[in-house]
Amino acid sequence: MIHILTADVYNRIAAGEVVDRPYSVVKELVENAIDAGADDIAVEIEGGGKTLIRITDNGCGIASEDLPRVYLPHATSKLQSAEELFCINTLGFRGEAVASIASVSKMSVTSRTEGAEAFSLCCEGGVTGEIVPAAGDRGTEMKVEDLFFNTPARLKFLKSDAQEESDITNIMARFILSRPEIRFTYSVNGKVRYRSYGDGLAAALANVYGAETIENCYEICADKHGIRLRGFIGNQNFSKANRSYQSLFVNGRYVVNQTVSAAVTNAYASYLMKRQYPFYVLFLDLPSEIVDVNVHPNKADVRFADNQIIYGSVYSVISAVLDGNSRALEYLVRGERKETKRAERIPAADTVAARPAAEQPVVPQMSYAEAKKQVAFDLTPVKSGIAPQFLAPDDPPVLKVRQPDRKEIEDVFAENQRYLREKSVQEKIEPDTLLYKGELFRTYLLYETGDCVYLIDQHAAHERLIYNRLKKHIEERAVVSQPMLAPYVLTVNAQEFAFLQKQLPVLNEMGFDAEEFGGTSVRVSAVPAELKDISLESFFRDILGSLETLRAVKLADILKDKLASAACKAAVKGGEQLTEREARALIEETEGDMGLRCPHGRPAAVKVKRAELEKLFRRIV
What we know:
The chain has 621 residues and is of the alpha+beta class. The protein is 35% helix and 22% strand. The strands form six sheets. Strands 1, 2, 3, 4, 5, 6, 7, 8 and 9 form a nine-stranded mixed beta sheet that branches. α1 crosses α4, α2 packs parallel to α6 and α15 packs across α19. The longest helix is centred in the C-terminal third of the chain and has 21 residues, at 406-426.
């Protein structure tokens, strides 16, 4: 039997597409405020947006007779016909957002139009109440409480309050950048996180990323093929550890687009080190008929009528500015900045950007047929000793890999452990039995014992000993902190700040004195004494780099590299001559461990048997 779903059911289903998280509620309602012509918008959230979201604007408002229609699905003031879908100039247009939000929350709308009284209408879980008089200035207040109160399964799968707050802060930063002419006030749990004054893109950029960011950027504005590209791009020496500092706005709408991303990344290819990413806040303004924003309900993706034109235009402009060719003067904004930036550019005799448009690279596209050629492995166990099995000749080869049983794994593990223990014992020698015989090239120390001679790399051995000592202090929490003369303040974006908040307790256990410092900043006042020369910029860059691959960061692994570098700097160097007393003290500290390796993996000791030497001199054959 086929059932016709009731409004409360299909609205909740639709809400899963449009309103999946608190940040999407904020996004949809702020977009409505912008479309209403507001130039002053206040956003307040509590409990990561789960408890409360309030959006207040000074837009045109909603007439009292239209308030009931606000909660109806597919009700909008922005479209009247299907033809208008091909020239969309508003951020919202489907009429799904408010109905979806109201079906999974306790929502109220209070609004007043010019010259009229204010009225309010509540809706709880999709059930509307009565229109009542209210107090308020011209504009609209949208209040959303207890999000997903009637869909506990979805509520269960929301992220923590801190993470949801981070995602809302991130989208608010994009609104401030995308609409620099609008005044925004964004508050979290009663505290102002962002406040912009609608005084231009440069001020908005400084508000979100800090004033020093502007000094490391080029401001560009270029018109090519009927497309305008404007905004800020980082200079050749300004990069970030992840892509969260990349913002693209197509006709004022924040989107993530692979064509533009590839064009920018390739333009920066010769200037950035591995795992470093360009910084940019770019606006792409183009005729609405050559871009389709009606691709996905969240409107975060768009399609272009011709990807090659978009790619070529973006690539040629950005590469011209970075390479410093003559066309860059046409693209740079503000004459006083041009001369300063020109001195920083690296000239290039033959760059890709200087080639004709027809020779511009095209973004490689993998077809569906090519994707299907991926070979899949069949992990069905087969008996030991049987050759790998393949399917019929007409089918792609599917390798069958034998899976060992648990007992076999345990037996092999035990055997490996036994071998490593025996090998460790064999490589350990009583220090008293080692006789110091001198040094070679002021780098290698010679020790004789029995019928063997050991060559010790003094730097590698000393480096390993220092590293072990530093690592032990960290593991035993016996580390001593070294106060800094001037605290180090790191300003990051919302996504990175939420990430660092979780790591602060671990950092403090390691000997750092790190704390929140207002907004999205972290202050470091002390570092582990063993790492007093550490580059905090490099250290935090390594930590934040893990955001790019979305892997769980392990501070212990990052700290291991820093400890290794500290040990390397502190260890005796090759070419430094040691006295016999220092050489003996070094071997005593190793406790006779001839299996030592430096933290980077190089062996610290090499054993040469007497028989091997006598073979060299042909005393024996």
